[in-house]
Specification:
24% of the residues lie in helices and 24% in strands. The protein is α+β, with helices and mostly antiparallel strands. An eight-stranded antiparallel beta sheet has the order 1-9-6-11-5-4-2-3, with helices on one face. The model has no long low-confidence stretch (mean pLDDT 96). The structure holds succinic acid and cobalt (II) ion.
């Protein structure tokens, strides 16, 4: 995709312009981002998902029986929906892209961002007045109006320590003031991009308001350091440790002196400062599935010969919904393919193919090592055979 072509879904901005001026920096309202948008699922289907075991769903009531801003977590019994008031509540279902292929297809419009930055597509339903209160998210999000109308008000960038209402399960801002003219009613197909840390409040203005949140994730420094340290911990030999050969006699036996601190610092910095090792960890962490138990590994190892035969017969492999892939070049020919938190060395074009949206059919067999890697990914549950193909 040329990065300077104007993209209608970005309101005519090119990918490069959007990334330069808006991504992580400023909101962008895009009227008609998806012209004539037909929401791929209806409110009843969303409620159906919220009743299923293993699907993350929340019900937020502005005036719940037990007080203001009540949150209940799914799975829900269908009777719950019948007992709700006529207005002022929201149902939110995470990762709908994992369950509804037509929702996952929307992601094809977001190829101006690295796929491994994606978190999921959350869909919310609300009758009139429904919202989750004014709040701040730590993630970039594209809020696509799917059905009905929602009024969005933005309150500008707020500091990390902005006060939130105490004593409830939601992080709702105590103070929210609309900044300037940042107040719009979105219709189906309109989309609002919000960077992290930007206060926002979206209230349903219609009977059946469905909003799709295409959310992106970025690990916090706190998560990254803990996770990298865990990864390093598994790799480093027990013999690599604090060492003080050749040190001068201590001035005071009780003192932790500068020399000791410097030796420890050097050991830690040396082990951390290894770009190749860091990339191996980063690829694994960014491809970790959102819900690990959604991966279904195969019971018996797959024979690569059987993969070859099936592909040659015209069968096609599918990337499992929710599986994540990324690749990183090792040199001009070889790469690491990261899949669902694991990494494997392979031919670079093969890693690129598997981490793309392109079909995985017999053509893949032209690439060296394809049958073995595809068999391993089938075994891990990252790929499966297209049963309908
Ligand atoms: C919603 O869809 O109701 C809330 C989405 C958000 O504010 O992040
Ligand atoms: Co939000």
């Amino acid at each position: 995709m040329p990065t300077d072509a104007p993209l209608p879904m970005l309101g005519g901005l090119s990918a490069a312009e959007f990334l330069r001026d808006h991504w992580q920096r400023r909101p962008l309202l895009i009227r008609g981002a998806f012209p004539d948008f037909q929401c791929p699922l209806d409110p009843d289907e969303l409620a159906g998902l919220a009743c299923e075991e293993g699907i993350e769903a929340r019900l937020v009531e502005e005036r719940g029986e037990a007080g203001p801003w009540q949150v209940r977590h799914g799975p829900f019994d269908e009777a719950v929906f019948g007992a709700l008031p006529e207005r002022d509540w929201s149902l939110l279902v995470q990762a709908v892209d994992h369950y509804v292929p037509e929702v996952a297809e929307l992601l094809e419009a977001f190829t101006f961002l690295p796929r491994w930055r994606l978190d999921d597509i959350m869909i919310s339903y609300a009758p009139p007045g429904g919202s989750v209160g004014p709040h701040v998210d730590q993630y970039d999000v594209f809020l696509l109006q799917g059905m009905g109308r929602r009024r969005w008000q933005l309150g500008g960038k707020v500091p990390d320590d902005a006060p939130i209402i105490a004593g409830i399960d939601l992080r709702i801002l105590e103070h929210f003031e609309v900044e300037g003219d940042d107040d719009w009613v979105l219709e189906p197909g309109d989309m609002l991009y919000l960077p992290p840390g930007w206060a926002h409040h979206g209230v349903s203005q219609s009977e059946d308001c469905l909003t799709l949140s295409v959310g992106f994730r970025a690990p916090s420094a706190d998560e990254a350091i803990t996770s990298f340290a865990d990864y390093l911990g598994e790799q480093l030999p027990a013999s690599l440790r604090y060492a003080d050969a050749g040190m001068p006699p201590p001035e005071d036996v009780g003192e932790l002196d500068d020399g000791a601190v410097e030796r420890m610092r050097a050991l830690i910095l040396e082990t951390l400062d290894d770009p190749a090792r860091l990339a191996q960890w980063f690829g694994r962490v960014m491809t970790q599935p959102k819900y690990v138990d959604q991966l279904v590994p195969s019971e018996r190892p797959t024979d690569p010969g059987a993969v070859v035969a099936a592909l040659q017969e015209g069968e096609v492999l599918l990337r499992s919904p929710g599986s994540r892939f990324a690749w990183r070049a090792q040199d001009a020919q070889r790469a690491t393919l990261f899949a669902d938190g694991d990494g494997a060395g392979c031919a670079l074009p093969l890693a690129r193919l598997i981490a793309s949206d392109a079909p995985l059919d017999a053509e893949a067999l032209a690439l060296p090592g394809a049958a073995e890697l595809l068999a391993a990914l089938l075994d891990a549950g990252s790929l499966s055979w297209d049963e309908e193909g």
